[in-house]
Design goal:
The chain is an alpha/beta fold. It has 15 helices and 22 strands. It comes from Aureimonas phyllosphaerae.
């Protein structure tokens, strides 16, 4: 049946969410963007959605042939058989015999004939949804901005009493260097802008923005999207304040009593924990210990792996006594290998939301923040975006672990480019220290917003026997240099333990 509400779906659920329910029915809309930004794909999906609802739909193509449109549709698996396609790419079909007259300028005959043919076709089909692709041909025929605006206004007045929802596509190729025709914005009930950004490395980024939508409280700002077979995958901008749910901030135990004692039971749910330290200190293994304990409690967990390959991580976890495979098989654990050159911040945030809302994820690990930042080097405001993700996870009661490698092999007390007081609620610092000519590891808690924490420095041992935390080490020199040297007795230090 025909959609009878005051809203018409765009054919994309996420875009309808951005539009706060869809497009107001019976209005004129402008979809603008450079070639390759996804306008035609969006328009086709809009018409197919209407056809699936039993509505008459009309696609008016002013530049492409029917064969070209069908080829594009086939690449997405679209079936346009239920959609009327009106092709105006042939000049002879528009001009007819008037082409030979000399009283009027040829462009006046062409434009007038084009408008009349379109109106006749609309009267014949009586569509509920119409797409014009694209306005650049009409702009070229009009030659004068005032005449062009007048013709668009006439189209708007023509469709107004007929109740059709109309999308005008503008590829911004005509006019001065493809400059956007903002004077058309005032004529349209809504304006949607699609952009394609070419990066120095990796896939192109695409994003959309609702410029205006009269009478609708839409979600403003840029929203990332990708073009995939079947249409656009839109990733609405994450607004953490809209997703608060009540929860109890109880501790998340690691299963190792000495480790949990450092935070008086463990990090609380709804908080983010930053594990920082030089390469090779065991940051990922420490996070995996919390993941394995959560899965044993029956809590779903997700790991986003930016740096290490999943196979390598699984082998290393097994060598440290952490068997994650049963949890992967049961579906409690999901490990996502992130391709650093292919993902956008919006797509990543949307994936996190899906893990929480669809899978019920209770613990999430990002390994690592350096990998996240390196994956999107040309994106702006990445720290603000990761903070919005953390705020969302906190409000959903999800425990988050962030792995942050320090610069260099031994590191300093600095956590790199990140402001830890701004990003994380809890900071766990792992350091190397020297004793009796050997490198060893020490663990300490720098901060814990959610409660008390131990201030001692303890030895950390990670071997085939798993993770162990030793007694407090009180005899150190050069602690603030980031590479403290232990000068006490060797006896209190732990020795390597092999698997029984």
């Amino acid at each position: 049946m025909r959609q009878t509400s005051d809203r018409t779906s765009s054919g994309n659920a996420e875009l309808d969410h951005i539009l706060n329910g869809g497009l107001p029915t019976g209005r004129l809309y402008l979809v603008e963007g450079a070639p390759g930004s996804g306008k035609t794909t969006l328009a086709m999906r809009f018409l197919i959605d209407g056809a699936e609802r039993g509505e008459r739909c009309l696609y008016v193509t002013l530049s492409e042939t029917r064969e070209e449109l069908l080829a594009v549709a086939a690449s997405h698996g679209f079936d346009l058989s239920a959609i009327d396609i009106f092709e105006l790419s042939s000049a002879e079909a528009v001009l007819g015999e008037g082409r030979e007259q000399s009283i009027l300028h040829s462009f006046e005959v062409e434009l007038g004939g084009m408008i009349q043919l379109i109106q006749d076709e609309v009267e014949r089909v009586r569509p509920h949804r119409v797409v014009f692709d694209s306005l650049s041909e009409m702009r070229l025929l009009a030659q004068d901005p005032l005449r062009y605006r007048r013709q668009v206004l006439l189209l708007k007045q023509f469709f107004a009493p007929r109740g059709a929802t109309v999308i005008l596509i503008d590829d911004l190729t005509a006019g001065d260097a493809g400059r956007r025709d903002t004077h058309l914005h005032s004529l349209c009930h809504g304006v949607l802008t699609l952009e394609r950004l070419t990066l120095e490395f990796g896939a192109a980024r695409r994003r959309l923005q609702v410029q205006k939508l009269r009478g609708v409280d839409f979600i403003a700002g840029f929203h990332d999207f990708t073009i995939r077979r079947g249409g656009l995958s839109v990733f609405p901008r994450l607004i953490a304040a809209q997703h608060h749910t009540p929860f109890l901030g109880d501790p998340m135990a690691s299963g190792i009593a000495e480790l949990d004692a450092l935070l008086y039971g463990g990090p609380l749910r709804g908080t983010s924990t930053l594990i920082t330290g030089p390469a090779g200190t065991g940051k990922t293994t420490l996070a995996l210990q919390y993941v394995e304990a959560a899965c044993r409690r029956g809590e779903p967990a997700t790991i986003y792996e930016f740096d290490e390959r999943i196979g390598t991580m699984m082998v290393r976890a097994t060598a440290m006594g952490l068997d994650l495979q049963p949890h992967l098989d049961s579906g409690l654990l999901r490990i996502v290998q992130v391709d650093p050159a292919e993902i956008s911040p919006g797509e990543f945030a949307f994936g996190v939301r899906r893990e929480v809302e669809a899978r019920g994820c209770r613990l999430l690990v990002i390994d690592s923040l350096n990998g996240y930042l390196a994956a999107m080097p040309q994106e702006q405001q990445l720290i603000l975006q990761i903070h919005e993700i953390l705020s969302y996870l906190n409000q959903k009661g999800v425990g988050t672990f962030l792995i942050n490698p320090q610069h260099g092999l031994v590191g300093t007390m600095s956590t790199g480019t990140l402001n830890i007081s701004y990003v994380a609620d809890t900071v766990i610092l792992i350091r190397f220290f020297e004793a009796e000519g050997r490198f060893r590891k020490a663990i300490s808690i720098l901060k814990n917003r959610s409660g008390p924490h131990e201030e001692a420095i303890r030895e950390l041992r990670i071997d085939a026997g798993g993770i162990r935390v030793g007694a407090p080490l009180v005899q150190f020199r050069g602690i603030l240099t980031g590479t403290p040297e232990y000068s006490g007795e060797v006896g209190p230090l732990m020795e390597e333990r092999t698997r029984a």
